[in-house]
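Researcher: I'd like a candidate sequence for this fold, 142 residues long. If you have to choose between options at a position, lean toward the conservative one.
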């Protein structure tokens, strides 16, 4: 039975692969457009489902409220960079610079979740909650 950490990590892995693939493309090409659309879709859907089925239940706990607020604030930060990317020419140096900023922010965020937040959450949630949240998260992502 999968728990919430397994399913969140699946998306994190997908995000890392898409970020690397995207940074290997050049100019305003179809490959760049497609990888960017997939990355944006994954980041947006993941953040939404993660806030609902991971951070929202944790925000109830005194031990986990600070990390939950921090994690959600980072989602907003990432959204802002995506908005800037949306209105920047894909073949420009400015786009590449923004894309590198996005990668830096996303990688930092994923590491913080996996290396710190999941440990704290592991102490707050019980086994059944971890499995129920995984099912709810997957249902929303589908
Ligand atoms: Fe995440
Ligand atoms: Fe996140």
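Model: Candidate sequence:
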């Amino acid at each position: 039975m999968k728990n919430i950490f397994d399913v969140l990590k699946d998306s994190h892995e997908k995000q890392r692969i898409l970020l690397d693939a995207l940074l290997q493309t050049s100019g305003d090409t179809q490959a760049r457009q497609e990888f960017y659309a997939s990355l944006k879709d994954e980041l947006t859907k993941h953040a939404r489902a993660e806030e609902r089925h991971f951070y929202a239940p944790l925000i109830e706990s005194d031990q986990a409220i600070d990390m939950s607020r921090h994690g959600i604030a980072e989602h907003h930060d990432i959204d802002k960079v995506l908005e800037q990317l949306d209105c920047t020419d894909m073949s420009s140096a400015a786009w590449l610079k923004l894309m590198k900023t996005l990668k830096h922010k996303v990688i930092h965020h994923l590491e913080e979740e996996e290396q710190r937040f999941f440990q704290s959450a592991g102490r707050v949630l019980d086994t059944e909650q971890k499995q129920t949240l995984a099912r709810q998260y997957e249902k929303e992502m589908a």
